[in-house]
Design brief:
With 289 residues, this protein is an alpha/beta fold. It has one domain: Rossmann fold, CATH 3.40.50.10320. 31% of the residues lie in helices and 13% in strands. Helix 1 links the parallel strand 1 and strand 2. The longest helix has 16 residues. This is 1D-myo-inositol 2-acetamido-2-deoxy-alpha-D-glucopyranoside deacetylase. Keywords: Hydrolase, Metal-binding, Zinc. One of its GO terms (molecular function) is N-acetylglucosaminylinositol deacetylase activity.
Length: 289
């Protein structure tokens, strides 16, 4: 049996560089600033991503195919902005290739993450679990939040690793979430905006993602780290243009909005909640750390 540790340790498993920021950046910054051990595992280099910097268009998969290497630097800058010192690529940098969107030819590439042997990939993550011994693991839901094959595979790998880790398994597992109430507020707030990310959508339930409020278990509020999250987003310049709706959202919803992130508890015992929904405010709630 693994020895007991008093250090708070939390592990985030994401599919591509930049995924760490959008749904969990403020949470990562909050726990890093509080002295917890924050570990990020990214499963691919994001080689198939779109490029929003014209001068770097030649890095694309169909050109020089060097985007993945470039994004290693972007990820390093993002982690620095968030205060995260411990970052690894699953199985080492380049072990698994970005699979592209569902149905893309990249889904069939021999090295793509979508085609990875589940137990082999999970074995790489088990090694990390046994080293850093997180009490809390964060990843995506079974649909990878929005159906991307690498997100779905990241979910499968993280959950399988937790099974294989035995006594080193995390005590709580969370899946990222966006409450339907927050999505509906976004639809209303952006209605009529020129950069409306919800154009043509009337009801949050019609979107291919979103979690009913009753299925959300935690809301981590870290508004003081919103600027760090925005800086991390800017670090991913090839993927997140300055005109992105993410920056508009930070402006339209007011200071601190991007500093609140939500989660579903997939495994473990919930701790004490607060507020009108009774949501946890700390992912370590109920743990003796």
């Amino acid at each position: 049996m693994a020895p007991v540790t008093s250090e708070r340790s939390i592990l985030f498993v994401h599919a591509h560089p930049d995924d760490e920021v959008i749904g969990t950046g403020a949470t990562m910054a909050r726990y890093a600033a509080a002295g917890a051990r924050v570990t990020l595992v990214t499963c691919t280099l994001g080689e198939e991503g779109e490029i929003h910097v014209p001068a770097l268009a030649g890095l694309a998969a169909a050109e020089a195919d060097q985007l993945g290497g470039y994004r290693i630097g972007e990820l390093a800058a993002s982690c620095a902005a968030l205060g995260v010192a411990d970052h690894r690529f699953l199985g080492g940098a380049g072990r698994y290739r970005d699979s592209g969107m569902m149905g893309d030819p990249a889904n069939d590439a021999p090295r793509c993450f979508w085609r990875a042997d589940l137990d082999e990939a999970a074995g790489h993550l088990v090694a990390v679990l046994r080293e850093v011994r997180p009490q809390v693991l964060v990843t995506y839901d079974p649909n990878g939040f929005y159906g991307h094959p690498d997100h779905i595979q990241a979910h499968r790998v993280a959950m399988r690793a937790a099974e294989l880790a035995g006594p080193d398994a995390p005590r709580k597992i969370y899946w990222t979430a966006v409450p339907l109430s927050a999505l509906q507020a976004g639809i209303e707030n952006f209605r009529g905006a020129s950069d409306n990310p919800f154009a043509g959508v009337e009801r949050a339930e019609d979107l291919p993602f979103g979690t009913p409020d009753a299925e959300v278990h935690a809301a981590v509020a870290a508004p003081e780290h919103q600027e760090a999250k925005l800086a991390a987003l800017r670090a991913h310049a090839t993927q997140v243009p300055a005109s992105s709706w993410l920056f508009s959202m930070a402006t339209n919803f007011g200071a601190g909005f991007l500093g609140v992130e939500h989660y579903r508890l997939a495994a473990g015992t919930p701790g004490a909640g607060a507020g009108p929904h009774g949501w946890e405010t700390d992912l370590f709630a109920g743990l003796d750390t």
